[in-house]
## 1
Amino acid sequence: MAGLNLGIAGAGLLGRLLAWRLAREGHRVTVFDPAPHAGARGAAGWTAAGMLSPVAELECANAQTAQRGLRSIELWSQVVPCLPQPVDFRRAGSLLVAHRSDLGAAQRVLDVFSAQSPADTAPPRRLSTQQLHELEPAVLGPAAAWLLPQEAQIHTVQAMDALADAAAQLGVAWRWGEAVRRVEPHRLDDHTFDRVFDVRGLGARPELPLRGEGHGFTPQLRGEGHGFTPQLRGVRGEILWVHAPGLVLRRPLRLLHPRLRVYLVPRPGDIVVVGASEIESEDRSPISVRTLLNLLSAAHSVLPELAEGRVVHTEVNLRPALPDNLPAIETQAGLTRINGLFRHGWLLAPALVEEALHDAGLGAGLWKESA
Ligand SMILES: Cc1cc2nc3c(=O)[nH]c(=O)nc-3n(C[C@H](O)[C@H](O)[C@H](O)COP(=O)(O)OP(=O)(O)OC[C@H]3O[C@@H](n4cnc5c(N)ncnc54)[C@H](O)[C@@H]3O)c2cc1C
């Protein structure tokens, strides 16, 4: 089925990936977003560190997320080489590390991994001090380290830019500065399409449908005297970039800690991304002193060289989340909605897009085969 007229509400991570994918299939695609231009950084997709951690995220996800994550890593490895500009994508695994005082908490997390991991997942491999030094000489201080060999990372800023450029080259019409207020089957506001996609992230909140159990989106609940309480919520995430010339970190590193979830992600240009807080709040104000202290002291405790780095950027955004913190796809005639990607958007987007297009009768199998 080629040559359909398709409309997309939202040009964040999902919107860009969908637009590019559908245009490659030969469809006419129009994308609406209130952002003033392709490089305006409102979408959560820009802020993300780009950890692709199907196993490490089992601490706050389920086996299906891990399976979709493994699938997405495979799909990103096919997407990235097709993009018109370079996107830093690495499949060198990731490291988990723990200090001696936190080994009990670390073991509990490792037990969750082994209980939840899908069958085809490689388990965490315990590293000796010598092996850790050979893999990551700059990492000093942790009492224990494990390698998760199937994990990966993607440079989210490069990928957001490259997906928009690639889609534009394929003829996608970007309607910047245009918010969609009403999404219905075949319609985005007053525009008519063969099918429409609602991927507005948190921007979809006013319109989330009332659905029964088992259909992805959960019913909205009535608040106490305040009308409907929306079920989609934003979860505040704060992140910072450190410029640390000379510091060599080859793969993402996660500190297993009883209270904090702290990770470090290397990027080209001697940048280390340190993230991220997870706060039940929709406050978009700048990063707090508490978060800066927590993230940087935890990061410095395993990567001492970071002390000489410079904090060159901080960013705050909201993760779109449903009550169970799991993603949902809804397919009906003329309309597909995908939302609730929470802290796993980059980990899940290709697999979710693949499933959603298949459900809508638009999907080819492997992305490479149709390239
Ligand atoms: C600090 C932080 C760190 C993260 N780290 C990771 C990570 O390491 N790995 C990972 O996998 N995920 C990570 N994430 C999560 C990831 O960023 C999100 O899950 C993902 O961006 C969600 O994608 P989306 O397309 O649904 O939403 P978004 O990327 O937010 O895009 C939504 C788009 O819809 C547009 N929109 C809003 N309202 C309207 C409207 N009315 N009409 C039209 N368009 C509209 C917005 O302008 C935006 O462009 C992180 C998130 C944060 C905040």
## 2
Amino acid sequence: MTPSESYISIRNVGKKFGDFEAIESISMDIREGEFFSLLGASGCGKTTLLRMLAGFETPTRGDILIDGQQMNDVPPFERPVNMVFQSYAIFPHMNVRDNIGYGLRRLKLPRAKRNDMIDEMLELVQLQGYGDRRSDALSGGQRQRIALARALILKPKVLLLDEPLGALDKRLREQMQVELRRLQRSVGITFVFVTHDQEEALTLSDRIAVMSGGKVLQVDTPDGLYERPRTREVAGFIGSMNFIEGKVLSRVNGHATLGLSAFGEIQVDAKQIGFVEGEAVPLAIRPEKIELLKEPSEGAVPGSLELKSYHGERSYFQVRVDGCDDLVSVSTQNAGRAKLRALEEGAAVWLKWRDDAFIVLDKN
Ligand SMILES: Nc1ncnc2c1ncn2[C@@H]1O[C@H](COP(=O)(O)OP(=O)(O)O)[C@@H](O)[C@H]1O
Ligand SMILES: [Mg+2]
């Protein structure tokens, strides 16, 4: 990304709490208007990074710039950001309008102007008609909308959202995801969104930073993370994945031949491979990129079906292949596949793939 495309620039930012290094050294750039997510397991440093963007924590080292302006010494209330928390932090005894308008009070706006702004927000988060209700009389989803409206009414350039949907049950969360995406599109501001839920991150984001242990492992589009994870850790974190080790047998004319023991040989583009002959190559392949057959076929590897599970739209099959320690996970769409679904556990099956379905991971 060129410096002019970067709206939020995080440069070698680290954070220590005493001796404990919560963030090691993170550098990344976020574009204006982007829906950007920080994704990672609990404790990996997502909230700490978000709080440094908000100004609630001071980096131990490094710089944060927003819209070209150095933020290090700018206090939270002077930063062009606002934050939404998982616990909505709205005032239960106040009605919806007063909650949404809370941040406007110190701006000393004329009453009519303030009311117009609140009306606009009520419409934006689809709470028209709820303005005079007490906030504690509303559902979790509605309260989260109030929290969003209260943050957005101040027209921040950046909205920071720390697991804002985490307290909602699955159905409501899915509804609010759609809502949040629509909201972000219609206001056009930059969202930095924290979640530990990979599906949520994939559905909502323009780009995602996958974090682990205070580090960023990979920053990419949802598609890029799914199709081209660079490391085993990222590949295992997003969706399900089979891991297989290959060995470089030869490199000729831009192609490398890899030996996969029980799985035969595959050809890959040698450019992807920084490996030399004889070296081990970590590979990964998605369950849906493997074809499951009931009959032998040229190039197909034989195995036996150990387990199958039905997931509505798809079925998952765990296949034992001789000479391979791990079961191979295969998934197929159910529509039009009645014969595969009818396979009994213990049945003989064959597996087939295209060579380019394999992802070559980085050496560790
Ligand atoms: N104020 C603090 N003092 C000491 N340790 C902290 C503090 N805040 C966070 N940590 C530690 O830093 C790590 C990252 O925390 P956090 O950013 O909250 O992770 P996440 O939001 O990804 O779950 C955790 O190990 C946490 O215990
Ligand atoms: Mg957190």
## 3
Amino acid sequence: MMKGKTVVLGVTGSIAAYKAAELASQLVQVGTRVEVIMTEAATQFISPLTFRNITGRPVVTRMFELASEYSVEHVALAEAADVVVIAPATANTIAKIAAGIADDMLSCTVLATKAPVIVAPAMDVNMYENQVTQENIAKLKARGFVMVGPGYGRLASGKMGLGRLVDISEIMAAISQVLGKSGDLHGKRIVVTAGGTQEPLDPVRCLTNRSSGKMGYAIAEAARDRGAEVVLVTAPTALPRPYGIDVVQVTTAQDMYEAVQKAVGKADALIMAAAVADYRPKKMAESKIKREKADKLVLELERTPDILGEVRGNFLRVGFAAESEELVANAKEKLRKKQLDLIVANDVSAIGAETNSVVLIDRTGSIDELPTLPKREVADRILDKVASLLSS
Ligand SMILES: Cc1cc2nc3c(=O)[nH]c(=O)nc-3n(C[C@H](O)[C@H](O)[C@H](O)COP(=O)(O)O)c2cc1C
């Protein structure tokens, strides 16, 4: 979605301005054309030369600069933009935009553009919490600006508080979501499950599996970036909370079953990428099981709810089959038994890995064997199928 798009990156006079260089670099790496506009104050913190070299494009710093290719047509970048991103955004620039002031190239571009505008504030906590800044931010939100952050943490003043520029990955996710708004899953509600459930044995121990959650998170993020409204029902993972996705945290298979039941209300598709325990301890010990108690410990297990088998409704149902043998035959059997629309068959070796090689089998019997790909690419191939099944 980002390839070939024009991102106008506004950099303002914050101590966090140096982080915008990394943002520009990541944008260039995903194939966007990056046009940087710096405020006068921003040039005190980082040199235009840095952005000139990263983007390979002229950097606009002054509205009346004759050397700039944009000097004559002061709204040229406003028209060229697919998205305008202000990162970091100072309290001053936020106030100017909220008031409609256009006295430098950045504020002028924001006032003139019809493209979506993403604002990532960075400032001292007292500046951020000041009522006037809060009112300005509320005004921008009400006008449809996308606010990303600020985050909580250590600020340049040494204080802890809200005001940090969010991680570049979060700004990238926001850009990706904004650019994908009218993608092929626009208007669709997709529920995705991820992670490995944990079934408690006692207050400190549990039965679980090696699922990292990466496949499910990749599907959720890819669906978000194709315009879908996404709910991610996730068992514990070490992954950061994804931007722009409604996340429901669960622990056990029973929790996941209940959360999925609730989430699928208005869903168009349910994609079950989670590794859900098939069995759980019949009884959870109330206190920690002691080693000295006995030489041997026998656990009695009982079945957990079969989420895919039981959750039905007027939505597409996609399952995963992780098999150690007879991959396609077992996956076909699962597709038939659970009356799924699509099954993604993968070898158990995919669990925890960065890549996956999957076979997609749909309800019509069509079989698509994909090469080994990064999980995000596998996610997009699964969603190609989901989009086409939804439209048929
Ligand atoms: C060392 C230093 C750091 C600053 N950091 C910030 C900041 O993080 N956020 C902010 O809103 N203002 C910050 N300011 C104040 C702005 O630079 C100042 O308000 C400036 O006029 C902003 O101009 P601009 O919005 O046109 O870039 C800082 C000033 C100095 C001297």
## 4
Amino acid sequence: MSPPPWTLPALRLEAPLLSGRIDAGVTLSTVTRLVASGTAVSKADLVVAAGLARTTVSAAVDELLARGVLQPDGIRPTSGRGRPADRLALSPHCGAVLLADVGARGAHLAVVDLRQQVLGHVHVDLDVREGPAAVLGTVEGELEKLRTRAGVPVRAVVIGLPGPVDGHLGVPVRPPIMPGWHAYPVAARLQETFACPVLLENDVNLRALGEARALPADQAPLLFVKVGTGIGGGLVTREGVLHHGADGAAGDIGHVRVRGAPDTVCVCGNIGCIEAVASVTAIGRRLGLAGADAASEVRELVARADPETMALVREAAALIGEVVAMLVHFYNPARVTLGGSVTSASDELLAGVRSVVYQRALPLATRNLVLATSVLGEHAGLGGASVLGIERVLSAEHIGLLGAATRR
Ligand SMILES: [Zn+2]
């Protein structure tokens, strides 16, 4: 026999997690998250939902009750002859998460408890171009008021910014519309202020995550495309988690160049980026609006269906549709959500993008594709921030910290 013409190097094969990996932290985290999301509210439900042994679930529930993380929540009558089950709920006293969804010209700030109840919410006008010291000063002041009002220990802070971020280092990375923010220690500063873990995320990623978790699981993979002062994308995988890519830059679609786009110079220095030719800023510029209120003026013109503005919105939709069609081919999402001020003011952008995508993308990629506007609207970012923060607090690594303060 002649030797084989080529050989394979040793390739890594995926292996299932061993049951030995299910340690106490994983069990406590699983049980608490199932209760927190309303998936399972009794010991019997938890055994089924977690796929763990009855004794394991029972011990975990007893420990969480003793630590004040869970509390009894009445009786749930069962249908048929079954014994009524004791309902469980997260304790409202075991902690809260502070949320900041900072956009280019304003921020939504909120405090939620670990049961996902919104304890307070405020919107403030600000301008990210004023730099990190001024903007974060405002954000911290408002979050401090929300924390005081909540009256429970803050376990985590989640902040979203309208630009690329390095989530591991907790810093923005050369954000084109945020002068002075590059490498500014955003997470470290908030950690110092609030004495708890801080998660920094891109604003569109937060919207994508919020949207995906507000919809049934079969609506993922989900691609969120935000058309605002800039254009950005966020991707949630079929497993329901954010796809960050190698450096956190995944989904940063604003600087993709489209066929047939005008040679407009972009804030990033390149020519013909989708953001430079189809964002709300670009539409405003062509209407002769360039001031700080340009975006809200464009939104008003769209809401009034001003003919000149709508013609520009349709042009923008055709260009954005090209980018979305390409992404649909590449990623085959179950759902594409279009968000941002223009989509909430009119269906014209959605209709335009939809027609290009269905014309250009091949049937297999669009057979079951849903292309829609955001179900959470302007609060999608806070939704995603809430998910990230609560999941962090209830994670296997951190759940051990819960209950310590409530016992004091
Ligand atoms: Zn660009």
